[in-house]
Amino acid sequence: MSRIIRLCLSATSALTLLFLIFPLLIVLGSSVSNSELLSFPPQGFTLKWYGVVFANSTYVNAFIVSTALAAASTLVAALLAIPASLAIARYEFIGKTTVETILMSSLVLPYIVLGAAFLQYGTSIGLVRSFGALLVGHVVIIMPFIMRSVIPQLSEDQRTLEEASRDLGAGAWVTFFLVTLPQIRSGVISGSVLAFITSWINVEVSIFQATPALTTIPVVLFNYVQYTIDPTIAAVSSVTILVAAALIVLLDLVFEIDIISKKK
34 and 42 in contact (C-beta within 8 Å)? Predict the structure, then answer.
């Protein structure tokens, strides 16, 4: 009976994985089709649509903006999320639950609502349709991903190590960099990768702040698909998929190297 259960679980896992991967395969397959229209299965094989993408300055600029925005947003979000996580995990203060709820609220609020709110508030203070406006919006929506990865790793055992470090004469900063940060490194890295990908693919917040000279790749795709449907869309999407996949592989390698180094 146990063997039958294992086979059923394996089959279910395989079907679930196939269900998740199949749409990605369709996008990748459509991006190399000879057809002038978006279609699957691909008719022939060609890489000309990738050439079209990288020969188009609009796409290239959008890739640059998306990458710079995602990298800057992730860096700022990490710098804010780490001390915020430490404060929530280590200290008791008035309004702690309220503060945590506010910081995590973007996980449950629709991004389209947040995008409209950022535009309305930004207009009142003169922070609108600029890289700074995009940066603020993206930091707000991705910061909870890093916090959710870091807070569970701030255990009581780790706090004991921190107290031991302080008792031995290490200052607060030395204790943080030599004791606390190494313990939460995996959470920071995994949360940051997820935050980067979330920022990279975001449409709802970005579209309210986009300008012709400052447009992210998801916004370009959103506007393009309203008027034209050809394999160029699939090629751009495939590049985005490959970037996300590369980050996940890099994350896996970093964790593997970290585990091996700890064992040694």
Answer: yes
pLDDT band at 79 (very low <50, low <70, confident <90, very high): very high
Sequence-distant contacts of 108-113: CB under 8 A, at least 24 apart: 110/204, 111/141, 111/202, 111/203, 111/204, 111/205, 112/204
pLDDT bucket at 147, cuts 50 / 70 / 90: very high
Cα gap 202→141, rounded to integer Å: 10
Mean pLDDT across the stretch 45-62?
Answer: 85
Q: Kindly report the pTM of this predicted structure.
A: 0.82
- In this structure, are 142 and 242 located in the same domain? no
| Residue 85 CB burial class (10 angstroms; 0-12, 13-18, ≥19) | buried
Is the domain of 212 the same as that of 241? no
Q: Which residue bears the tokens 């929506």?
A: 141
Among the listed residues 254, 204, 196, the one whose alpha carbon sits nearest the alpha carbon of residue 76: 196
The 10s digit of each residue's pLDDT in 214-245 is: 889 888 888 877 777 778 888 888 888 888 78
Based on the fold, state whether residues 89 and 165 are members of the same structural domain: yes
DSSP letters spanning 74-127? HHHHHHHHHHHHHHHHH---TTHHHHHHHHHGGGTS-HHHHHHHHHHHHHHHT-
**169 and 113 inside one domain:** yes
- CA dist 92 and 99 (Å) reads 12
Report pLDDT digits (tens) over 13-29.
888 888 888 888 888 88
